[in-house]
Design a protein that fits this description.
Heat Shock Protein 90, 21% strand, two-stranded antiparallel sheet, six-stranded mixed beta sheet
């Protein structure tokens, strides 16, 4: 399946990125907190990306840690924007091989200067791992700059939405949600992009009242390339073939 087709599959979210970038940088991007079903989120991503996986002969599956709550508190739309972008990039740079989406509890791997994550009772990690082309070490931070691309080129505003544009906005969205995005990658071996968010479960028997109050992201800067205490960051994707799907 062509890159154009992959991009078209996520147009609903990508088309908003250029407008959202200016809002995010100015702190004017609003959040609308709600209850997010993790299983429904996984199924939504599968609905978008399984046809792409089948079309380009790439294995794809989703994994959901059974110790996670059924629902969490966050901005549903912004979370889907982030995951859609990470998965779009994974398929764009993985001609064959595997792409895996995993959601799990995590105890480390984020910037210790991130006060929201450090102070959270629990943290959820949503990781997208691929066996694609990978990213050179000196490009991994640059990738999060607006209009940067994997190959080192740039994209002009209003032109093609390159991986770096989406990553730049995704990182800012993650910060607005109280989290961050980290990357672990090696050329020729693939990449793992992990979204860390404070984990606030929703009581299934109680009416939903969001307790999470959006606040400015911490100003501390840290190395985004960190080994985490999550299975997806520590383990390699299994070499055994698996059909596209979710489990």
């Amino acid at each position: 399946m062509s890159t154009d087709t992959i991009t078209a599959e996520s147009t609903k979210y990508r088309s908003e990125f250029i407008a959202d970038l200016a809002k995010a940088e100015s702190g004017a991007l609003p959040l609308e907190l709600g209850a997010v079903s993790l299983n429904e989120l996984r199924e939504a991503m599968a609905k978008i990306f399984i046809p792409i996986a089948v079309g380009q002969a790439t294995a794809f599956w989703g994994e959901l840690d059974d110790t996670l709550p059924a629902r969490i508190v966050t901005d549903p739309h912004r979370l889907r924007q982030i995951l859609t972008n990470l998965l779009t990039n994974a398929f764009q740079f993985t001609a064959d091989g595997k792409v895996v989406l995993r959601m799990e509890r995590c105890t480390g791997g984020w910037d210790p200067a991130n006060e929201r994550l450090v102070g959270a009772e629990s943290v959820i990690a949503m990781s997208v791992r691929d066996t694609g082309i990978g990213i050179e070490t000196d490009r991994q931070e640059v990738m999060f700059e607006a209009f940067a691309r994997v190959g080192g080129t740039t994209v002009q505003p209003g032109g093609e939405t390159g991986a770096g544009l989406g990553l730049s906005i995704s990182r800012r969205l993650a910060e607005l949600l109280g989290g961050e995005i980290a990357v672990v990658s090696s050329p020729g071996e693939g990449s793992t992009f992990t979204l860390f968010l404070p984990l606030e479960p929703v009581d299934a028997d109680a009416a939903f009242e969001p307790a999470l109050t959006p606040s400015p992201a911490p100003t501390g800067t840290g190395d985004p390339i960190r080994a985490g205490a999550c299975a997806m960051l520590a383990d390699q994707v299994s070499a055994s073939p698996r059909a596209p799907g979710v489990r």
